[in-house]
Amino acid sequence: MNIPTIRDIKDLKGKRVVLRLDFNVPMRNGKIVETMRIDRAIPTIEYLRKKQARIIILSHLGSDASMSLKPAARYLAKALNTDVGFVPDFRTPDARKIAERLPLGGIIVFENLRLDPRELENNITFAKYLASFGDVYVNDAFAVSHRVHASIVGITKYLPSYIGLLVSDEIKNLSLALHPIHPFLFILGGAKFDTKMPLLKKFMKTADTVFVGGILANDFFHDKGLEVGLSVVDTYQHKLTPLLKKGNIVLPLDVVTKSGDAVKKVTSKEVGEVLPNESIVDVGPETIKNLVPILKKTKLVVWNGPLGYYEGGFDKGTIALMNAIAKSKAVSIIGGGDTAVIVERLGIAKKITFVSTGGGATLEFLADGTLPGIEAIGNCKKGK
Ligand code: 3PG
After folding, report:
1. Cα–ligand 1 centroid distance for 301 (angstroms)
2. How far apart (Å, rounded) are the C-alpha atoms in residues 162 and 311?
3. Which among 203, 216, 253, 311 is least buried, having the fewest CB atoms inside 10 angstroms?
4. Which atom of ligand 1 is nearest to the CA of 63?
5. pTM above the 0.70 mark?
6. What's the gap in Å between 143 CA and the centre of ligand 1?
7. Which runs of consecutive H residues, i.e. helices, occur in the chain?
8. Confidence at residue 94, expressed as pLDDT on a 0 to 100 scale
9. Are residues 265 and 156 located together in one domain of the fold?
């Protein structure tokens, strides 16, 4: 499908652009903890400003309306070194007035869209209302494009619709995993086997090696009848051992375990020696050593999900593998909210070919090769 991008919009000067972004950034005590998603939206905003469009930014933050996008608007103003207006309630006549007064190249940010329950319902009246603020619609919110929401799908019925530069980049780079060069190493970590099973099955067919870490590996150990102690096992639904027959799945060789009151008692040990009162919290050093020669031959590596319980500080395995990837010559694509945040924290983003901004969206794109938000733009019938 041919998906039109903002570069296809004619005569942007003076046009009102309803720009859907994903400013769903991690927050603590009302402050932004990690700005990657906002930073990655900036090229599109700059492009539109340069063309003297009037920009109305829509986003959500969190799963409901409890957090405000005001800090995001403030951060954006600083990053762009310009004024950015903020509309605390987009449902009032004031919102219309502010949007109408926008100067050429001006920017406003509407408050968290989830303030209105109709957003999640993909309500048509609400989608039409959002559309009424613009002449064109641009979706540069890759990370939420797997949601059939009013500002992602519904709105494309009412305005000529395009994708932004970030969504375009995500499609281009994630598509490398769909038509891989070889040898191809696929790394799958994190949790939620139910959402990751389609990916595992798909990439088992196309990847030369699939390394499974994180909670997903515990599932394999458990299914093989190995002791996993108190480790989180995500699901008992899947028969995993038969998948090992194909021979291209690699599991951790050693793990880090924790027992009781944490850190002191953490030890590295061979898988199979886990005690009933321990939990597996990371992969061990042998596991990483085992992957390095594979990585040396690899031409393409795609990675989703951390290898350990990194929120609890068990991030050594993930960091060691990430550094090895950064040093390798392979084309590297890293996605999934948590994994991407670690890349940013390590400051190695420039050494990775592409870091996806999506969590669930990246998984869905890798599984299906498209997303509802992207399809909606491709199917948009409004005159362009
Ligand atoms: C994400 O962080 O994955 C996106 O912003 C989507 O958020 P949601 O899962 O609350 O729809």
Report:
1. 25
2. 36
3. 311
4. 10
5. yes
6. 7
7. 36-39, 42-50, 70-80, 93-100, 124-131, 165-174, 193-206, 214-223, 285-297, 316-327, 337-346, 360-368, 372-378
8. 96
9. no
Candidate of 34, 69, 146, 147 to mutate for ligand 1, largest count of ligand atoms within 8 Å of Cβ: 147
Residue 143 Cα: closest atom of ligand 1: 4
Nearest atom in ligand 1 to the alpha carbon of residue 147 is: 11
Determine the average pLDDT of the residues in 248-252.
96
Q: Is residue 224 part of a domain?
A: yes
pLDDT tens per residue across span 162-201: 999 999 999 999 999 999 999 999 999 998 888 888 999 9
Using the predicted structure, report yes or no on whether residue 283 has a pLDDT greater than 60: yes
The alpha carbon of 310 and the centre of ligand 1 are apart by a number of angstroms equal to: 20
Do 329 and 201 reside in the same domain of the chain? yes
Q: What is the CATH number of the domain that holds 266?
A: 3.40.50.1260
Give the residue numbers spanning the domain of 122.
Answer: 6-165+370-378
Closest residue by CA, ligand 1 atom 11: 144
List ligand 1's pocket residues with C-beta within 6 A. 22, 24, 63, 143-144, 147, 337, 359-360
- Tell me if the bond preceding 183 is cis, omega within 30° of 0: yes
Taking the centre of ligand 1 as the mean of its atom positions, its distance from the CA of residue 297, in whole angstroms, is: 35
The winner for highest mean pLDDT among 159-173, 187-201, 222-236, 250-264 is: 159-173
- Per-residue pLDDT at 237 exceeds 80: no
